[in-house]
Design a protein that fits this description.
It contains 13 helices and 47 strands. By secondary structure, it is mainly beta. The chain folds into two domains: 595 residues, Maltoporin, Chain A (Beta Barrel); 126 residues, no CATH class. The strands form eight sheets. It has a 22-stranded antiparallel β-barrel. Strands 10, 11, 17, 18, 19 and 20 form a six-stranded antiparallel sheet that branches.
Length: 990
């Protein structure tokens, strides 16, 4: 960690204290067999998230948000991900995600899974705890970011949620960069509770979700057993179900790749040209090049929510052995989900656009239509993979069926701990085992590129093998040759059966395991001015393992020129493990009756990337009984995730930002500031450094009356060495580093950018055709890339005046950049006590003062606050009237406006927006409107039952239009579902 001299001294002092405290812990535990506390001396000590010290007066000492089970019930949330949408610190940005962002491809978030993120930094920078201890990460990463799947934690089992939105690595170690979310499970329950919850939209489609729960508990002479079961089943929600998203937002947001009926792509007297097939299922679209094509819009196959079914269960058993409390927690879940992505594009075998098909494929059309199609076409000769030379044309298309994956995930978490006392010192030791295991199969829409190409060229055998060509005839060894598949022929059973033979079903298996042992003590160290100095100290050991193993047909392999066997589908293969040991201590010093000082420090040593020490200093001042002034400084870290350190090869797409670097823009973007995307392969990097963060916060907690509570906090994060791939940076570095420049497919062991092979063409004498003025090629040291670009334009007359990139650039994950966040949180509550009941008022929110980060590949700092998907202000308010038997009230949720992402649109889309009057040629900026929704909540308490009703988005507000999103709205901050009602009934058996 980077520190000033003063901070370094603090770190050394706290580190020394940590070591001494650990020694005290060892000595105390050794003496336990001879020392027993009298029952009358045992005092209940309360521990809260963010501290290991029990019993000290830490009320109001840190910005802690607590959601009780009653709060959860009033929101109507059936899942943890739904609950997190109500927490301002978890809203805004793209960190928190749910199944709305999941899909079938490796660039989507894992199917059926969800994650919570504080401050929009990302889920891997938020530590997730259950009952104060860790839980295994999902075996399937989001990109290369490991996270805890909160869908595996049933909301019905939660007693409360404690959210500490500030750096907490001094207490908990890695990952608590943005803070901690601690889910506390119900325990010590007596009786039986059965609950049912039903949810649906009001738009006429079946978007229902059913949640059934059972909670049972029984007290014994010396303990309690509490158990629960939770079943959740949600139907799919599609874009075509809603008026707002049924049709494309912009006609010019089309794709040239239709499904079912290809566009014909051919060479004519007017260069390359494209026309739609006569049997196009939709009306033709006229392009900017005056082509009439069959178009595709992604909303046709977009799922906002995917089918999700979970079965969860668990138990908590506590038993008192004299002065020792034994507690065991078990939490298990089984999740089934299906996710979808748009149908895969059909490419050539080498993944370039425009696959070939024989002219015979047009024979399905009548002679007149066929002649019209062929008028002006120059048929081209091409070679098939078996070696035939055919005459044909190219076509643009995608498959009919969306890419579909089915995923089943099993999780298990077991914690067993002992807690006791040695005089006035409390000790605790625990053992943790947690596992997440996922199995995935691509059940539809995935096709083998070799078998499909063979089928389209009449070279597929009925056993799935590819025919041999001897120069005259095609033959199949021990099988029969099948007729050619015709991509233009629709609704023909025999033709469809040929396509079905080319389907593949790649699989993916992943396992994440966590084993932990911890021990700690806390109690009174000494007296100072009549007050107790409290100390906590301990040790923790963790063993983490993760494997992600896709089947061979979903992996890019060097021996196969890094082509995945199937179209439009990739995977991440990774395997890594690590051991970690942490020593920690915490000191609470009441300096005076009004001033408290807290010091904490933690040393963590990792078997793979090294060690780190993180201190925390906090001060609390109570000038009056009802006012607390608080402040803290700390450092935090996030160790490179196991996936980031151990990914062997990940197939994905990466974007480079031409606006971040003018040299990159001139070479690859015709000088424009657009975002470009390319297929890349990511490799793990064992030399990654830990992400580091420095956090500062100060604020107040004020209770002017018994029924009024106000908290106000300023916070800031300086986050460095963020791990990501950085294609913009690699393109910039490649300008002067020839080792990063390669023509054609990269070889195993090479890193860098892949350029079109034609850029390295040579004449018959072996001399390069495209060089700079000194005769150097793109691969040579000292090559001047601007001069090579000029030569390329003269040589090839390309459609775009830019250096031609090929595919599968190989990039190392790296520590790419920094970000700085500053903001203010507030929470105000007031209760009006009436003779007939209570009126409860609440107002809370977050305002971002700064959200700055460096652009990838550039030292330029961009400000995200107020830009696309990063609203500056997020707030909520509540008003409830509560009586002993019933309550009624409402929540108001507000999301601020922010800039639309117009700059990322294509030129034809910009022109359409100008024609619509949304923007002008002189001012191409617009804002996504702010969004305010109201949720009605009511409940009635019978003698043995509770009945509750919530109506979300009571006034049926549409999601604000966002032209910068392909969906037409921002799915991270808004939803198009309209009004959703939720009815729940609980019955209690005493």
């Amino acid at each position: 960690m980077k520190k000033s001299n003063l901070l370094h001294k603090i770190s050394v002092s706290v580190g020394t204290l940590s070591y001494l405290s650990f020694c005290i812990s060892c000595i105390s535990n050794a003496a336990f067999a001879q020392t027993v506390t009298n029952e009358d001396e045992t005092v209940e000590r309360i521990q809260i998230t963010g501290s290991n010290i029990r019993g000290a007066n830490m009320e109001g000492a840190q910005p802690l948000t607590i959601l009780t089970s009653e709060d959860i019930a009033r929101t109507g949330a059936s899942t943890i991900s739904e609950l997190m949408r109500t927490v301002s610190q978890a809203r805004g940005g793209v960190g928190t995600f749910d199944t709305t962002q999941s899909g079938a491809t490796s660039t989507s978030t894992p199917p059926g899974q969800a994650a919570a993120s504080l401050r929009g930094i990302g889920p891997s920078a938020t530590l997730t705890l259950v009952n104060g201890r860790r839980i295994a990460a999902s075996s399937f990463a989001s990109g290369t970011e490991n996270f805890v799947d909160i869908n595996s934690i049933p909301a019905s089992a939660i007693e409360r949620v404690e959210i500490l939105a500030t750096g907490a690595s001094a207490i908990y170690g890695a990952d608590a960069v943005a803070g901690v979310i601690n889910y506390i499970l119900k325990d010590n329950y007596e009786g039986l509770e059965l609950s049912a919850n039903y949810e649906n939209t009001t738009n006429g489609n079946d978007h229902s979700a059913l949640n059934l729960q059972m909670l049972w508990g029984k007290n014994f002479d010396n303990g309690n057993l509490t158990a629960f079961v939770d079943y959740f089943d949600r139907k799919a929600i599609k874009a075509t179900d809603f008026t707002q998203t049924r049709e494309p937002l912009l006609l010019n947001s089309y794709s040239y790749l239709p499904k079912g009926t290809p566009n014909i792509y051919y060479e004519s007297t007017n260069d390359f040209y494209e026309i739609g097939a006569p049997n196009c299922a939709t009306d033709f679209i006229t392009t900017a090049l005056d082509e009439d094509i069959c178009a595709y819009y992604g909303n046709e196959d977009d799922y906002f929510e995917t089918p999700l079914e979970t079965l969860s269960g668990g138990l908590t058993y506590t038993h008192q052995f004299g002065e020792i409390t034994w507690r065991t927690d078990v939490l298990a879940s089984h999740t089934k989900s299906t996710s979808y992505s748009t149908p895969a594009p059909i490419n050539r075998i080498d993944d370039s656009e425009g696959p070939w098909v024989s002219l015979d494929a047009l024979n399905i059309f009548d002679e007149n239509t066929r002649n019209q199609l062929l008028d002006g076409i120059y048929p081209l000769r091409f070679y098939t993979q078996a070696g035939q030379r055919l005459t044909g044309l190219g076509y643009d298309a995608r498959f009919e069926t969306p890419r579909t994956v089915d995923v089943e995930t099993d999780t298990l978490r077991l914690v067993s701990s002992l807690l006791g006392y040695i005089n006035d010192w409390e000790w605790e030791a625990g053992l943790l085992y947690s596992r997440s295991q996922s199995d995935q199969i691509a059940s539809a829409g995935i096709y083998n590129r070799y078998r499909y190409t063979a089928a389209a060229h009449g070279e597929l055998c009925d056993d799935g093998s590819i025919a041999q060509f001897d120069g005259d005839n095609l033959t199949c060894s021990g099988a029969s040759l099948l007729p050619a598949y015709n991509p233009f022929l629709q609704g023909d059973a025999q033709n469809d059966a040929l396509l079905a033979l080319t389907q593949d079903k790649p699989t993916r298996d992943g396992t994440s395991e966590l084993i932990g042992i911890d021990a700690k003590i806390n109690g009174e160290l000494t007296q100072w001015n009549g007050n107790s100095i409290m100390l906590a100290a301990g040790i923790e050991f963790r063993r983490e393992e993760i494997t992600d193993s896709p089947s061979l047909n979903a992996q890019a392999r060097a021996e196969n020129a890094f082509l995945v066997d199937v179209y439009g589908f990739g995977s991440s293969a990774s395997s890594a493990s690590r051991n970690q040991v942490g020593l920690f201590t915490e000191l609470f010093v009441p300096v005076t009756d009004q001033v408290d000082l807290s010091l904490a420090g933690r040393f963590d040593d990792y078997s793979d990337f090294g060690n780190t020490f993180n201190p925390k200093v906090g001060i609390t001042y109570r000038p009056t009984d009802n006012l607390v002034l608080r402040g803290s400084w700390s450092t935090a870290f996030r160790a490179p995730s196991l996936t980031q350190a151990g990914v062997q090869l990940r197939t994905t797409r990466a974007s480079f930002d031409c606006s971040a670097n003018s040299a990159v823009a001139d070479l690859y973007c015709e000088g424009a500031g657009s975002i470009r995307g390319n297929n890349v392969l990511e490799l793990g990097n064992p030399n990654l450094r830990a992400e580091e963060s420095e956090t500062l916060s100060f604020g107040l907690a004020f209770s002017p009356t018994e029924n009024t509570h106000i908290t106000l906090d300023y916070w800031q994060f300086d986050h460095e060495d963020i791990v990501d791939t950085n294609m913009t940076g690699v393109l910039a570095a490649a300008i002067n580093d020839a080792s990063l420049r390669h023509c054609g497919v990269l070889q195993e062991g090479e890193i860098g950018i892949s350029y079109d092979e034609d850029l390295c063409l040579k004449d018959s004498d072996g001399n390069p055709l495209i060089t700079d003025s000194a005769g150097r090629t793109i691969e040579d040291d000292g090559a001047v890339l601007n001069e090579i670009l000029d030569e390329w334009i003269l040589f090839d007359s390309p459609r775009f005046d830019e250096l031609p990139l090929y595919r599968d650039h190989i990039l190392l994950l790296d520590n790419t950049g920094t970000q700085e966040l500053k903001g203010i949180d507030w929470d105000i509550t007031h209760d009006f006590k009436l003779s007939s009941g209570t009126i409860e008022l609440g107002f809370s929110g977050t305002h971002y003062l700064t959200y700055d980060r460096n652009k990838p590949g550039s030292d330029e700092i961009e400000s995200l606050a107020g830009t696309f998907r990063y609203p500056e202000t997020i707030a909520s308010a509540e008003l409830f009237y509560v009586q002993e038997d019933w309550y009624v009230g409402a929540y108001l949720f507000f999301t601020d406006s922010y800039q639309d992402d117009i700059i990322r649109l294509r030129g034809r889309e910009i022109d359409e927006l100008i024609d619509m009057g949304v923007i002008t040629e002189d001012n191409q900026q617009r804002n996504v409107s702010s969004w305010t929704t109201v949720t009605l909540s009511a409940g009635y308490y019978f003698e043995n039952a509770d009945l509750r009703l919530t109506i979300d988005n009571l006034f049926d507000r549409e999601a604000p239009t966002a032209f910068g999103s392909s969906r037409g709205f921002d799915a991270y901050n808004h939803d198009p579902y309209g009004t959703i009602y939720n009815v729940s009934l609980s019955y209690y058996f005493n």
